Structure to design on (226 residues):
């Protein structure tokens, strides 16, 4: 079983839809949670960064972390064709063998069609 | 502009050849990382360095080598021992433990 599981999709939605992307994880030491967006042939770009449980909102994007369920989500409101990309969740712990290392999900391919 | 520069963008390797991928950052970050990305497998960590003149193996270090002689530079050598080197290679840096990593735009390596 992988430490981080992410549904690879692909996910196809109409413009203006609300998109929900999710990851589950098994390592209870994870405390830092990130979402990255990656366009084709480009490096991942940081979208959201959260520490421990709770919600964080930035424009059309909302990140949620539920440590008790080992589950994180990214919501995209009013989705646009420019949101079409691969979305990667990533997480890390503190200290020990987790020090400084990110563990990534497989990535979810999202297409928003006009 | 601050950022991470990877070069070249595309690289071809002949049988038995070692090739070196460049990664430079001007973010003054202490930590640097190398990942390999294959379709459907996400990013896998090859090597990382928390400080100059020190580095650690990641999950898939076999067939690769690195050096960290300067804070801003972390080159990756793909050796002839790496039998399946075709992949997209990504370099990242971070200020420290728990801080988000920032990525370059990658080098795509292929076999001739």
């Amino acid at each position: 079983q992988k430490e981080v599981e992410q549904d690879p999709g692909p996910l196809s939605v109409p413009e203006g839809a609300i998109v929900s992307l999710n990851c589950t994880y098994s390592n209870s030491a994870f405390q830092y949670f990130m979402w990255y967006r990656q366009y084709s042939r480009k490096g991942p770009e940081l979208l959201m960064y959260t520490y421990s449980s709770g919600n964080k909102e930035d424009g059309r994007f909302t990140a949620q972390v539920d440590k008790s369920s080992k589950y994180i989500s990214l919501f995209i409101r009013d989705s646009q064709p420019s949101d079409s990309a691969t979305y990667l969740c990533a997480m890390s712990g503190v200290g020990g063998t987790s020090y400084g290392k990110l563990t990534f999900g497989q990535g979810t391919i999202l297409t928003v069609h006009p | 502009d601050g950022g991470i520069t990877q070069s070249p963008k595309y690289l071809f390797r002949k049988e038995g050849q070692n090739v070196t991928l460049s990664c430079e950052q001007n973010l003054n970050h202490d930590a640097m990382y190398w990942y390999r990305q294959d379709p459907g497998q996400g990013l896998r960590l090859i090597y990382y360095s928390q400080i100059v003149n020190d580095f650690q193996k990641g999950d898939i270090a076999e067939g690769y080598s690195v050096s960290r002689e300067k804070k801003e530079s972390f080159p990756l050598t793909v050796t002839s021992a790496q039998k399946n080197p075709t992949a997209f290679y990504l370099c990242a840096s971070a200020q420290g433990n728990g801080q988000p990593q920032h990525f370059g735009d990658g080098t795509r390596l292929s076999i001739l």
Q: What stands out?
A: Residues 25 and 108 of chain B are 19 Å apart (CA to CA). Chain B touches chain A at residues 4, 6, 31, 33, 40-43, 45, 48, 50, 58, 90, 92, 94, 96-98, 100-106, 108 (CB under 8 Å). The mean pLDDT of chain B is 92. The longest strand of chain B covers residues 43-51.
